[in-house]
Amino acid sequence: MKEQTISKATIDRLPLYYRTLRLAQDDGMDIISSDELGRRLELTPEQIRKDLALFGQFGKKGVGYYVNELKFNVGKILGLDNHWNIAIVGIGHLGVALANYQNFIALGFNLVALFDNDPNIIGKTVNHVKVKSIDELQSCAKNLKIDIGVIAVPAQFAQQVADKLVKANIKGIWNFAPVKMRVPEDVKIVNEDLSVGLSRLSYYITGK
Amino acid sequence: MKEQTISKATIDRLPLYYRTLRLAQDDGMDIISSDELGRRLELTPEQIRKDLALFGQFGKKGVGYYVNELKFNVGKILGLDNHWNIAIVGIGHLGVALANYQNFIALGFNLVALFDNDPNIIGKTVNHVKVKSIDELQSCAKNLKIDIGVIAVPAQFAQQVADKLVKANIKGIWNFAPVKMRVPEDVKIVNEDLSVGLSRLSYYITGK
DNA sequence: TAGATTGTTAATCGATTAACAATC
DNA sequence: TAGATTGTTAATCGATTAACAATC
């Protein structure tokens, strides 16, 4: 239907809109203007209207946006209404932190499985989910309908975990290992390379 | 000296160059071309040359870039040679994961302090660093010369931690709480909002 | 020298901002 | 109605890509 390609910049802003709308909802707001959204997000109102207009007409002229309705629609654009099933591979410190990540719930994701290859970790329970052997990934992926695999293993094992996830037919990978992964085109990857953010901060404070 | 403003896009790529150069170095490469860098990073060689040229002339025409030299220079641009001192506030699951983050060392940062407000956590040792009470932040910041504060506390406490960090005269904040923080202009903030990446992944797999 | 590859200028492409008609 | 605010077109700004002279 909508054949226009949406820029990465816009897609990056949508989750921020969603978060801000959630907070506005918590504040009991019924209606919010692009101006107020812009103030809260430190973006121009024009940009927000432009972004939203790419997906439909969600506002009322002279009035603004109904908070509930817009939040629902932005959530739908982001596909959060699919309530994707998530599995985490690598239950080290980061894996544990992610397994306990509260925003999974707030964003509608379900944590359905945890995997590791260390016998000392397999069998443990983290946030009500039991850690399974990585060898069970294939069968679990099917039974539990895993949509997204999170890679939280050391860099040198990341590619082989990615291969296993691809073989298990997952749709997307959320990768925390600082390596460029090779996967088929139809598997989407989002890289969460923490060292980028930290190095960026270093750059900014270096000037002073 | 160099008065040109560097775009955020360029600054985001510099850490990736640095990482790739580090790997090339590990592979024993002496010289690398913008073409080869582009292949490894999935970027065009023109873009890489353009980015680097903003900071100086690091290559040899007809030859390429000396890996060691370029890595040194990119590291210097990013300010990694400052060996910034880092403190983490909030030693929950995420704080522990970050305290054990190996890339701190690879990038030249020093983990010098950990803080929490939970008496059950204060006094524990994580990655050879003892967790102190948040009340000691002010005095420690001075003694230990803390440059960067990492916020790994729940969203509702993030702003007050930021205020304390600002008061303690740190230079930059690496913020993992999903909230927009208010700090003076001269304190730099980099937000590491994991829900953005995950929501983006949701968007990409929703189309299929 | 011939081949390769940088650094840089010019051309293109895309994203943001400005402006304003439509309308609640 | 008058005031407010959206949705959208046009103008501007910035970033990427293409091209090529310089030179190792």
How would you portray this structure in words?
Chains A, B: NAD(+) binds at residues 90-95. Chains A, B: Residues 79-180 form the CoA-binding domain. Chains A, B: Residues 16-55 bind DNA. Two copies of one chain form a homodimer. Chain A is an alpha/beta fold and 208 residues long. Chain A has two domains: 8-80, Arc Repressor Mutant, subunit A (Orthogonal Bundle), CATH 1.10.10; 83-196, NAD(P)-binding Rossmann-like Domain (Rossmann fold, 3-Layer(aba) Sandwich). Helices cover 44% and strands 17% of the residues of chain A. Chain A contains nine helices and nine strands. In chain A, strands 5-6-4-3-7-8-9 form a seven-stranded mixed sheet, with helices on both faces. A two-stranded antiparallel ribbon of chain A has the order 1-2. In chain A, helix 8 (155-167) links the parallel strand 7 and strand 8. In chain A, helix 2 (34-41) crosses helix 3 (45-53). The longest helix of chain A is centred in the first third of the chain and has 19 residues, at 8-26. Chain A starts with 7 loop residues before the first helix and ends with a helix. The mean pLDDT of chain A is 95. Chain A binds a DNA duplex (24 and 24 nucleotides) through helix 3.
